Amino acid sequence: MDLDIIGLKFEPGVINNKMLNTSILQQGHEKTQLLEHGNEIQMDAVSQLRLDFLNILKIDHLWMLKSLSKLTLTHNKIEVIENLDQLVHLKELDLSFNEISTIENLEKLVNVEVLMLNNNRIKRLENIDTLQNLIVFSISGNLIQEYKDFVYLRRFKTLKSLSLKDNPCCENEHCDSFVKAILPTVSYINYARVTTEEKLLCTSQFSFLIKKLEDEEELLQNEIINRKKIDEENEFNALSFVEYLNDSELFDTMFEQDKNISEIVYTNDTLRQEYDDYRSFYGEIMREFVEFGHKEYHNREKEIKQYDSVIEQARNSCAEKNKQANQEYYIKKIEIFNSILSTMESTDSELERLKHVGELCKILSEAIENLWNKLMTEEITLYEQSEETRSHFARNIEELSHQMIAMGKIVFNKWREREMEWTVDCESILHKILENNADVESDQNCLQLENEHMQFINDREELLIARVQKWSNELISRINWEEIRRNRKRILEIIYLIEKYKSNLEKLQKRFDLFYNEGDFNVNTFLKSIDM
C-alpha cells in the first residue's frame, strides 16, 4: 500500500542517542541505576532494550550497551543483521517481523539462549554454529523450502523449543514427523509439547536416516578430534621451533620441483633405493632433532616459571614491607593527634596550644619523610633485585637459545652432507642411464639440482635461527619493559601519596582549631576529614 495515498509518510527510524534515551526511559528502568551525572543515562548499565515499531532500517549505535542481555528489534524494516558483535552478554535476541533474508554476523553472540527470527525472508539455516547455548529458536513465517534443512539444528545439544510453522517446507506431510525425529533434544515444536509416544513413532519412521546422521556425526566428531590433535601438535612443534620437521613433508617439498628427477627415481631401482635411503636418513636425524626441540621447549618454560616465581616473591615481599611502613605511619599519626587532643584539653592558652601543635606537626612531617624514604628504599631495592634477576634470566634464555641454534646447525650440516652424497650418487647413476644418449646437459642438471637443494636447506636453517633469536630478543625486551613500566608507575604512586600527605599537613594547623571548636571531637573522624 502506498502510504502517501492515505496521507501517511514512511519516516525511517535511526538508532541514535535520542532514540535510545527515549526508549530506555519509557520502558520503566530504575533511574537510580541508570542515571549518572544529572540526567545522563549510564548506557553500560542497561540490561534490556526494546526498539520495536520504529521503522528502523539499520542496526547501529548499540556498542555502548555493554551489559545488554535482552534486545528486541521487532516490527521494523531491518534487512541485514549487523553491528551486534560488542553485545557479548546478550542472551535473548528478537529480530522478528523484519525484512532479513540471511542469518549472519551472529558468531560473537555465544551466550544467546533465545533467538527469534520469525516472519522475515530467510531461506537457509546457517551461520549460527557458535550459538551452542541456544535453547529457544523461532524461524516460523520465513521462506525455507526444504524440511531436511532442519538437520542443521542437530548441532545444538541444548535446544528445547523450535517454531518453524508457516514456512513453505511445512506444507510437506512428512515435515512435522521428520523434525520430531531428527531433533532428539527438542521438547516443544510450534509451542506444542512433543510427547514421548510421538517421539518414538517419528524416530521409528526415520530410523534409517537417523542412523546415517549419527554415523556421519560420529565421523565428523572424530575428524574434529584428530584435527584438534594435529593442530595442538603443530602448535607445540612451532613453540619448539621444529614445525614441519617431524615427518617427511619438508623433504618431499624439496623434491617437488624436480619433476625430471622424480620420474627417473620411480623408474630406476638403483636411484629409487638411493632416494629411499636419503629420505630415511632425513627422517632419522629430524626425529632426533624434534625430540631435542621438545626437550628444550620444556627447559625454556621451566626457566620462565622460575623467573616468574622469583619476581612474584620479591614483589610480594616488597608489598608486605610497604604495607607495614604505611601501618607504622598511621599509628604515628594517631599518636600525634591524640597528643594534640591532650594539649587542647589541658590548656586554655591559645599560644601554648598552637606552639605544641606546631611541634607535633613537625614530628608528623618527619614521619611523612620517613615514610617516603622507606617506600622509595623498598622500591629501589626491588628494582635492583629485579634487574639482577632479569640479567640472570636473560643469560639463561640466551644460553638455551644458543643450544637450540647450535643443535640446529649440526642437524642441517648433516643434511647438507647427505645432500652432497645424494648429488654425487645421482650424477653417477644418471651418467650410466644416459651414457648411450650423449646427454651433455646431465652434469649441469645435477649441479643445478644440488644448488637448488642446498639453497632450500640453507633457507630452512636460517628460518630456524631467525625465529629462535627473535623469540629470545622479544622475551627479554618484554620483561625488561614490563619492569620499567611497573617501576615508573610505582614511583609516581609514591610521589602522589607523599605530596598529598604534605599538602594536607599544611592545612592541619588552620583546620584543627576550627574542627576542635565544633565539639564532639574524634581523632579518626578528623583524620578522615583531612585525608591524612
General description of the model:
The protein is mainly alpha-helical. The chain has two domains: 3-205, Leucine-rich repeat, LRR (right-handed beta-alpha superhelix) (Alpha-Beta Horseshoe), CATH 3.80.10.10; 259-530, Up-down Bundle (Phospholipase C Beta, Chain: A), CATH 1.20.1230. Helix content is 61%, strand content 5%. The chain has eleven helices and ten strands. The chain has helices at 17-26, 31-34, 175-182, 196-205, 207-239, 249-256, 259-265, 269-346, 350-434, 442-517, 523-530; strands at 35-36, 40-41, 48-50, 70-72, 92-94, 114-116, 136-138, 161-163, 188-189, 192-193. An eight-stranded mixed β-sheet has the order 3-4-5-6-7-8-9-10. Strand 1 (35-36) and strand 2 form a beta hairpin. Helix 3 (175-182) crosses helix 4 (196-205). The longest helix is centred in the C-terminal third of the chain and has 85 residues, at 350-434. The model is unreliable at 1-8 (pLDDT under 50).
